Amino acid sequence: MALIPATLTTASASEAPTPAVPGVTFGKQSTDPQKVRDFWTPERIARALANEKTDQAGIARDAAVAKAAGEATEDAARSTAPRLTAEAPQILPAKKASVSTMAAAADVPEMPVAQKVPFPQNAPATVVGKIVFIDDAGKEHGCSGASIAADGNNTVWTAGHCVHPGDGRGSDGFYDLVLFIPGYKESLDTPGDYDAPWGEWVAQSFVAPQAWTRDKDYDEGDLAAFTVKAPTGYTNLSDTVGALGYKFGYGSDWSDIIDSGFPGEGYNRTDMDGYTQFYCTGDVVDAVDWYPWDNRLEMNCDMGAGASGGPMATTEGQIVGANSHVDTDDQDQRINDHLYSSNHGDQAVAVINAINDAN
After folding, report:
1. What's this model's pTM, rounded to 2 decimal places?
2. Other beta carbons less than 10 A from residue 69's beta carbon
3. Which residues contact 167 (CB under 8 A, 6 or more apart)?
4. Local confidence band at 330 (pLDDT 50, 70, 90 cut-offs)
5. What is the rounded CA–CA span in Å between residue 230 and residue 53?
6. Within 10 Å of residue 1's Cβ, how many Cβ atoms?
7. Helix (H, G, I), strand (E, B) or coil at 247
8. Residue 5 clears pLDDT 60, i.e. is over it
9. What Rg, from alpha-carbon coordinates, does the chain have?
10. Cα–Cα distance between 233 and 237 in angstroms, integer?
11. DSSP string for 108-169
């Protein structure tokens, strides 16, 4: 299926300037792919899931809603600048017989209490997978991500904090031993072990916005993409499990969104283990409608750490956001079921265009 090229929405030269393209950071994972797969033993996967639950490094926290006064000028300029857009349709896997329906392309119920995905080994659920990595402190951690339609057919979309700490180190800051496991699940035969029925896909090249790698901007920058290497016996990720399309730069208000991921914990939940794919459905709104420079996406969904990077997608299979952070109190305890994504506008367009140009 041909992709709709990512496009820039511009007025004529007499009406408006050409939109400024945000800067992005490129990175590489140089470790031999087989060594990466061998590294992730069941014991190390288990530690990654345990770390999600204990210190919630798998999901970032919302430090503050309002901007500092010193950032107001930059925000104002950003809010009035011409906008970029990019769009591509969903891709079904090559073996279409395995496709099932998670939700019809119509109205879906408001479901803020996450449920287990009913057919996690069938498309479209197989596009979502577990990401495991070693963070900058040398600890095992996990996130979620989704196969996304991109040139080369081997690209994963996720949150920026799932691949980079946002500490200003640029290309040197990307995490190591990053592995994507689509359709991941706990082994039925060996509890505590995991199954990778669609293979283990090792990260190769990363792209994240400088708004994340340099500025750690949760409002605009907590998003990223990376390419993967196909394991032996597979052609590419899109043919194997399918790929979600995307619709970037079209605002923060969306109806009938499906949000999915692999949470290790949740708001007032005790049944999330990091091995099981859950999903919520409902509407997404502009997080702070009265504040024009905060265009984060807000959804009522009780998934927590481990679900970071999981896609917020339309029923037509297009990503509009990625799980990023939640609201917490002074004791770092979650206070509601609000789940946020960075705005998927100019920064997301810049990342998907950069990953396409590199392939």
Report:
1. 0.88
2. 7
3. 136, 173, 216
4. confident
5. 30
6. 12
7. strand
8. no
9. 19
10. 12
11. ---EEEEEE-S-TTSBTGGGEEEEEEE-TTS-EEEEEEEEB--TTS-EEEE-GGGT---SS-
